[in-house]
UniProtKB/TrEMBL annotation:
This is von Willebrand factor type A domain. PANTHER family: CALCIUM-ACTIVATED CHLORIDE CHANNEL REGULATOR (PTHR10579), ZINC FINGER (C3HC4-TYPE RING FINGER) FAMILY PROTEIN (PTHR10579:SF43). InterPro entries: CLCR, VWA_3_C, VWF_A, vWFA_dom_sf. Residues 40-218 form the VWFA domain. It comes from Solimicrobium silvestre.
Length: 428
């Protein structure tokens, strides 16, 4: 079953009209046990000319190892794309016969042509629909820039068609691709984007993708937000395990209700930040900001799990209004961490080493304070951390691959650890 809990300061100072809140949504094992339906996994492989050699060899090996991991109750398909796309393996159950045929088909892949990402996604969409699966996960990999024509004319429309049909994890191989192109796809399709600068890392990443995908037991959940007409929902972001802006995918049901797709779920917890623009209130006035609920389908129909109403009161008591929700403060810090990395990398790319060092040093300090080990690991490939507590770092020798890995990892966040926080407060 899902649980949903809200965290925020229920008191606002006079004239304050913005409210920030964090919703923690948790699903446990009983969710995956209540949902039945077919699962399909898709592999969308870039076979453009620039993939020739080690990159394609490792991509083929990783795909074949991934296919071997599948059990007979899982469906799968393989797509190749360059300037256009073709179905390598049609959606089918992962029987021993189908796996053997897939191994042979993948081994025959060669690299040639340009890159049109929309073509690969479009073919994947067709195979997901043909499979009849209720839970669909796609692994999309590329090593180069998308063609300008595809970016301008086709990609946005195809992404829109895929929304809500499957989730997509995107991976850039090598260093000759653009991070924003992969984020454009993964953000809209509620997946992750990352850099695999060394092709030999593809197999391990494939395995991680499959483990996450196969653990999903509920096809789709939705965050339903009801607010009075006088309240505007200005922000909805997934903040853990990765920062995703969900407002572009929000659907207006009526003049008071928004629905935001949350994708498929396993046994896990995710955190979401919401912001509301409220009307101006007088001291003592109270306003309901929202009623939030997680909505999903089980064998008996729609299930709605509500959160306690989020409501605030205006007060002139500074002791109340200046309190900051620990959860809100934590994710404000994680957003600041991401911004510091992005701005630091931008400064580094422009040759402004002094500014880059300051910003990346600040990022190292924030990462250490919040316990974000993943971002710290990536930072250490770009800078030598002299003193994390003081934010003192030294830039390392230029390494495009390390910079890209850091840029793609800047949206990775860490959840607040209440026990760690309590220990710090006790010491103080």
């Amino acid at each position: 079953m899902f649980t949903i809990e809200g965290f925020y300061n229920p008191y606002l100072a006079a004239s304050q009209t913005r409210l920030d809140a964090v919703l923690t949504i948790t699903s446990d094992a009983t969710v995956s046990q209540t949902t039945s339906g077919r699962k399909v996994v898709g592999f969308v492989l870039d076979t453009s000319g620039s993939m020739n050699g080690e990159k394609l060899a490792q991509a083929k090996l990783a795909a074949r190892r991934g296919i071997d991991m599948l059990t007979e109750d899982i469906w799968f398909f393989v797509i190749k794309f360059a300037g256009s796309a073709d179905i390598v393996v049609e959606a089918c159950p992962a029987t021993s016969t189908n796996k053997a045929l897939a191994h042979y088909a993948v081994q025959q892949l060669t690299a040639t042509g340009s890159t049109a990402m929309s073509s690969g996604l479009k073919k994947a969409l067709g195979e997901v629909k043909r499979s009849g699966a209720t839970i669909a996960s796609v692994y999309f990999q590329t090593d180069g820039d998308n063609s300008a024509d595809d970016n301008e004319r086709y990609l946005a429309g195809v992404i829109a068609e895929c929304e809500g049909v499957f989730q997509c994890d995107c991976r850039g191989i090598g260093t000759d691709w653009k991070p924003n192109e992969l984020r454009r796809i993964s953000s809209a399709l509620l997946g992750t984007a990352d850099a695999i600068t060394d092709p030999t890392g593809l197999e391990e990443d494939f395995r991680s993708f499959l483990n996450r995908s196969l653990a999903k037991g509920i096809a789709a959940a939705t965050l339903r937000i009801w607010s009075p007409k006088v309240v505007k929902v200005s922000l909805v972001k997934q903040m853990s395990p990765e920062i995703l802006d969900l407002m572009p995918s929000a659907k207006r049901i009526d003049d008071k209700t928004l629905e935001i797709p949350l994708g498929a779920w396993a046994t896990e917890a995710r955190d979401y930040q919401l912001a509301f623009e409220l009307p101006v209130g007088n001291i003592g006035d109270e306003v309901l900001a929202c009623r939030a609920a997680v909505v999903f389908q089980d064998s008996n129909g729609e299930v709605k799990i509500p959160c306690e109403p989020i409501a605030v009161r205006w007060s002139e008591d500074d002791a109340l209004t200046t309190r900051i929700s620990r959860e809100v403060a934590h994710y404000t810090g994680q957003k600041e961490l991401a911004d510091s990395i992005q701005e630091g990398l931008d400064a580094k790319a422009k040759g402004d080493d002094d500014r880059a060092t300051r910003l990346l040093g600040h990022a190292a300090k924030l990462a250490a304070e919040s316990g974000n080990e993943e971002v710290t690991r990536r930072l250490k490939k770009v800078v030598d951390v002299v003193d994390a507590s003081a934010g003192t770092v030294r830039l390392k020798k230029a390494d495009k691959g390390a910079d890209m890995e850091l840029e793609m990892g800047l949206t990775r966040t860490v959840r607040r650890n209440p026990k760690q926080q309590q220990a710090v407060e006790t010491q103080n």
